[in-house]
Amino acid sequence: MSDHKKTIGASPEQLLYAKILEKGMFFGLGLMVITFTIYMTGIMKPAIPVEQISNYWKMPVSAKAGHGAKDAHAAAKEATAPMAATATPGVPVAAAPEAAAQPAKDEHADKPKPAYLDSINKEFLHLEKPPTGWAWVNLINYADFLNFIPVAMLAGVTILCYAAIVPGLFRRKDKAYAIMAIAEVAILVLAASNLLTVGGH
Amino acid sequence: MNNFSRRTGVAGLLLGGLALLTPALALAEEAAAAAPVSTTAWWVWPLSLFVVTFFMGIIAVLGGVGGGVLYVPIIGGFFPFHLDFVRGTGLLVALAGSLAAGPGLLKANLASLRMAVPVALIASTMAIAGAMVGLALPTNVVQICLGVTILGIVVIMFTAKKSDFPDVQKPDNLSSALGICGIYHEPSSKKDINWQIHRTIPGLLTFIVIGFMAGMFGLGAGWANVPVLNLMMGAPLKISVATSKFLLSITDTSAAWIYMNKGALIPMIVVPSLVGIMLGSFIGVRLLKVAKPSMIRWMVIGILLFAGLKALDKGLGTKLLGS
User: Fold this and answer.
1) Does the distance separating the beta carbons of A14 and B99 come in below 8 Å?
2) Does B54 contact chain A (CB < 8 Å)?
3) Dihedral (CA of B263, B264, B268, B272) sign
4) Phi-psi region of A88 (alpha: psi -120 to 50; beta: other; left: phi over 0)
5) In a domain, A142, yes or no
6) Which of A34, A46, B104, B144 is the S-S candidate for A143 at Cβ 3.0 to 4.6 Å?
7) Does residue A84 share a domain with residue A62?
C-alpha cells in the first residue's frame, strides 16, 4: 500500500517537476523566437532558400509504400494496368511536385512521388544520405536547421523533469513511482535516440 | 450595459476572427491547388499559418479543446503541406500548449502527477508505436483514418456527458496501492474536495488506444483523456481536465521525437504555428471570463465536422469538398 498522504498542496516532487518544466518551457520558447528571427531575417543562410521551401512541403517526408492520394496519373493508369504496389526511393525531380490536374501519360504513371528528404538532399545538402535522426546537429550552421535546437529542447524538457524527481521518490520510499519514472525516462530517451525507425531512411 | 458591451465586443472579435479565418483558409486552399510550382510569395504561408493558428488558439480555449485536435484537420485540410509535416507539427502544437499550462496546473495541485505517471507510461509508449505506424502507412490511408477519427471526436463531443464530481464510493485496489487520490480546493463552493478513483485497470488499458491514436494522427489526446479520467475512472472534472492537459506534455513528447527523427518537421511550418496558437490561447484564457463557451463549443463541433469530412474526402480522393 502506498504511503502517499493526501495534502491540499502539491507534493515536493510535483513542485520540482513544475519548476523545471516552467523554466525549460520559457527557455525553449525564447530560443525559438531568436532562432526563427535569425532564419527569417537572413542573418544566417538557410540550407533551403526560403522562397523555394514551398515547393517541397507538399511531398511526403520519405518514400512510402503505395502512391498516397490518387492523382491524375494513377487514375489514368488504373484503367489499363494494376498500380505498382510499392514505391521505390525515387530519384527526385529537380523542380516541383507534379500537379494533380495535369493530364496523365502512361510513361509517367509508375513514377514514384518525390520525397522531401531525398529532394532537399539532392538539391541543397548533398550529403551521403538524407538527414534523419540527429543528423540535423551537423547542419546547425544553416538557419533553418538551427531551429531544431529549441524544438529538441521543448521535446526534451520532460525527460529532465522525470529524471529530477527520481531521487526524491526513492528518498520517500515511493519505489513504484521511482521505477515508473525511470521507465518513462528510458522510453523517452529511446524515442529521442533514433533507434526506433520504420522503413525509409 | 457594461456586460452587454463586453459580450458584444467578444462576439465581434470572434466573428471578425471567423471572417478573417474563412478567406485565409480559402486563399490557402486556392493557392495550394493553383500550380505545380508555387507562385505564392513564400512569406504568405508562415503569415497565414500564424493568423489561422492565432484564432485557432482562441477558439480552442473557448471551445474546451486542445490545439492539436483543431490543428491537424484544419491545416491538413486547407493548407498545401503534406500530412506528415502537419501531424508532426500538430504534436508540437499540443505539446507547447501543455508545456505552457502544465506548470501552473501542477503547482495548483489541479494536475495530479500521481495519476499522470502510470497513465503516461502506457500512453507515451503507444504514442511511439502510433507515430511509427502512421509514418509508414500510405497517406490516403492515414487521411481516411483521420477523417473517421475526427468524426468520432465530433460524436464524443456531441454526446459525452461530464460529471463535475463523480461518485466514487471506494477506490479500487490498484489506485489505493499507488496512492492515486488527492484534495483540491473548489472556489465555487469554497470547499476542499477529496477525490479518489476507481476502474483503474480498464482506464489504463483504454490509454493504450488513446496513446496510439495520438501518435498516429498528431492530434494530442485531450478529447479522449478527459472522458476516460472523468467518466470512467471517476476523477473530478477539474482534476481530469488539468491532468489531461499536463499528460499531453509526456504523451506528445514521445511521438514528437519519432516525427523529428524521421525529418518530418519544417521550421517554417512549426514556429509560426506554435507562436500563433500559444498567443491565441493566452488571449482565449482572458476571453473565457466573458465569452459564452457553449456557443463556441458548437462552432468547434461544426468546424471539426467539416474538417473530418474533408479529410475523408481527401483520403478517398472523391474531391467532393474541393481539391
Assistant:
1) no
2) no
3) negative
4) beta
5) no
6) A46
7) yes
Give pLDDT tens digits along chain B (323 positions). 455 555 555 445 444 444 444 544 555 555 444 444 556 788 899 999 999 999 988 888 777 777 788 899 889 888 999 999 999 999 999 888 888 888 888 998 889 999 999 999 999 999 999 999 988 888 888 888 988 988 888 888 778 777 778 888 888 999 999 989 998 877 777 888 889 999 999 999 999 999 999 888 887 788 888 889 988 999 988 888 889 889 989 998 998 999 999 999 999 999 999 989 888 888 887 886 676 656 767 877 888 888 888 888 888 888 777 65
Q: How many domains does chain A have?
A: 2
3-state secondary structure B265-309: CCHHHHHHHHHHHHHHHHHHHHHCCCCCHHHHHHHHHHHHHHHHH
pTM: 0.78
Q: Please check whether residue A35 lies inside any domain of the structure.
A: yes
User: How much is the ipTM here?
Assistant: 0.80
One domain for residues A100 and A127: yes
| A68–chain B Cβ distance below 8 A for any pair | yes
Give residue limits of the domains in chain B: 2-316
Whether residues A73 and A106 fall in one domain: yes
Contact B177 A176 (CB under 8 A): yes
Q: Is residue A72 part of a domain?
A: yes
Domain extent, residue A25, equals: 12-43+150-192
